[in-house]
Amino acid sequence: MPQYLLAMTIFGTIGLFVRFIDLPSEMIALVRGGIGALFLFLIIRLLGKRLDRSAIRRNFPALFIGGAALGFNWIFLFEAFQRTSIASATLAYYMTPIIIILLSPVVLRERVSAFKMCCAATALFGMSLISGIWSGDAPEIDGILMGLIAACFYSTLVFANKFLKDIGPYDTSSMQLSLSACVLLPYVLFSTDFSSFSPDTTSILFAVVVAVLHTGVAYGLYFSAIPKLEAARIAIFSFVDPAVAILLSIFVLGEAMTTAGIIGAVLILGAALASELVGLKKAA
Predict the structure, then answer these.
(1) Tens of pLDDT along 180-208?
(2) Which positions fall inside the EamA domain (predicted)?
C-alpha cells in the first residue's frame, strides 16, 4: 500500500515540475522516455529480473503502438499543463476511462452497460462545466483540448495493451518507454528549432527529475505494489494522482477554480471511479 500511494502522489506532482521547464513539450517527452527507460532497466537489473525477449518479440506490434501512443500522450499532456491550469489539464486527462468506455464497443467488441454509459454522460457534462462553455467564458479551451487529446492517446495505449499476451509488466513498461523515445527522437529532430531556445539549469534539472522520479522511480514503486493489492484498492487509490494535482494547482500555484469547475471535477472523478468499481464488482 505505501509504495502505491507514494507512486500516485509522485504522478500527481508532475504538472508542477513541467510548469517550470522551459523546453518544448516534445523535448520533455523525449527526455522522459529515454532517461526513464534507462532508469527502469537499472531497477529491473537491481531486482535481479531479466527481460523476456521471446515475449517481447511476440508482442512487438502492440508494444510499438503503445509506445508511440505513450510518447504523444506526454507531448499533449505537457502542452496542456503549459496552456491551462494544472487542475483543468488533469481533469481533461482523467476523461481517459470515459473515452475507453465509449470506444470499447468499437475497438474491443465489448458490450457496455447502461450504468457505464450514464457514467460517461455524467463525466462529459462535468467536462463541459470545466471548459466554461455554459458560461461563455472559456479562455483556456486550447489547454483543455490538449488534455483531451492526451487522454485519447492514453486510451490508445490502454487498448494496445489489451492485445498483449503472456508478457510481464516490467517487460511491457521498459519496452514501451524505450519505443516512445525511439518514435519521438525523429519527430523532435525534424520539428524542433534548436536555435530558438537555450534551456536554463532549472529546466534541465526539472526535466531530469521528471524522467527519473516521475518515470523510473514511480513506475518501479507502482509495479512493486500492484501484485500485493486488491483490484478495488488499486482503482480507488489511483485517484490520489488527480487529487494531489488539483490541490497543488490551488494551494501552491494559486490557480482558482470556479464553482462550476469544482462541480465538474466531482462529476468527472466520481463518474470515472464509479465506472471502474462497478466493473470490478461484476468481475468478482
Answers:
(1) 999 999 999 888 777 777 778 899 999 99
(2) 5-131, 143-273
Listed in sequence order, the residues at least 6 apart from 23 whose beta carbon sits closer than 8 Å to its beta carbon are: 31, 197, 199, 203, 207
Dihedral Cα 275, 278, 283, 284, nearest 10 deg: 140
Chain centroid to CA 107: how far? 20
Sequence-distant (6+) residues with CB within 8 A of 128 are 134, 264
pLDDT at 283: 45
Share of the chain above pLDDT 90, in %: 46
Residue 79 scores a pLDDT above 90: yes
Q: Are 34 and 183 in contact (CB under 8 A)?
A: no
Cell numbers describing residue 241: 494522482
pLDDT at 281 over 70: no
CA 143 to CA 181: how far, in whole Å? 24
Task: Enumerate the domain spans of the chain.
Answer: 2-283
